[in-house]
Amino acid sequence: MQYKNWWLAAAGCAMLTLSTAAQGGLLVNDRWADGTDSDPASPTYSEIGVDGDADTDLESAWFQGGGGSLDPAAAGGPLAGTVSTGSSSWTTYFTPEGTPVTLANAGDSLTVTWVFTPRTVNAGNTSQDFRLAVVDSPSAQRLAANGAPASGLYAGYGMFMNMGPTLGNSNPFQLREHDGNGALLSGSGDWLALANGVASGAAGYASDTQYTYMMSLTRNATNGLDIRSTMTGGNIGGTGSVAVSFTDPTASFTFDTFSLRPSSASGTAAQFDTSLFRVDYSPVPEPATLSLCGFAALAGVAIARRK
After folding, report:
1. Which of 78, 267, 277, 287 has the fewest CB atoms within 10 Å, counting from its CB?
2. How buried is residue 181: exposed, middle or buried, by Cβ count under 10 Å (0-12/13-18/19+)?
């Protein structure tokens, strides 16, 4: 009976560990295999790691705001976003409403990856009109149809960037935090500058060249958030890679939204072809789970020796 009890404890430990791991993993991995950017439908908006329609993608629905257009070019992508003379915005939710990714424990991390190719990069702009954000959206501001996100109390982080063959803005790769009740990306007044990356004058973007953007968010042991933002591809920065890092001691730890604002074609590029959007969530096991597993493992060793 004693042996049976220890084996039951070990089995329970394994089941608990698997349950914890199942809460994380690959949430979104979309290449638009089915040729649509509008599923899954309301109110889910994200497959959250389960390929419900068996099309080989883990999808999240996208919403287009402002001018231009946003549609997959064909089955298999890319997701083609055209930019007009006015502002454009493109938004997706990688979890359903009310269930954001929560970085609850030290070591929990979230990584958002966006792979894109700009077409006809503007030759002379020096603005910060190339913007993106990873935030937690208030319920009232979550989109249910095409449109730009309304002003609200968004919590999270964004990048205000310059796009041109040469990075001409004084802060061409700037990490910011949303710190007010205001616009998501159409204004800068509610965004607090945290850190700057590459210097002005560095090599920038080339038309028809693929780039990979990544934002990694990791809760640390002192209840702060380690943020790292990178852009790789071409000759950006003169090396093919630029980055900025910051540790926020009073951080936001919940996230459900990725939003892009390429502004006008004169401020960024005429078109953005997205070949991959991916979201990875990596939680660490709860301390109680680790204690139970460790206890069960020690017990198993002791029993094996007695046998």
Report:
1. 287
2. exposed
Residue 124: count other Cβ atoms within 10 Å of its Cβ. Answer: 9
CATH architecture of 25-282: Sandwich (2.60)
Instruction: Tell me how crowded residue 193 is: count the other CB atoms within 10 A of its CB.
Output: 12
Nearest C-alpha neighbor of 24 from the set 205, 247, 260, 280? 280
Contacts of residue 22, Cβ cutoff 8 Å, sequence gap at least 6: none
Q: What is the pLDDT of residue 236?
A: 99
- The reported pLDDT for the residue numbered 38 is 93
How distant, in Å, are the alpha carbons of 98, 142, 271 from that of 180? 21, 17, 31
Residues 6 or more apart in contact with residue 169 via CB below 8 angstroms: 126, 127, 128, 162, 200
> What DSSP state is assigned to residue 54?
-
Per domain, the residue ranges of the chain are: 1-23+288-307, 25-282
Q: How far apart are CA 116 and CA 32, in angstroms?
A: 13
Residue positions counted in the chain: 307
pLDDT at position 23 is 64
The answer to whether the Cα torsion of 23, 132, 68, 200 is positive or negative is: negative
The answer to whether residue 170 scores a pLDDT higher than 50 is: yes
Q: What is d(CA 36, CA 59) in angstroms, rounded to the nearest whole number?
A: 10
| 135-146: average pLDDT | 96
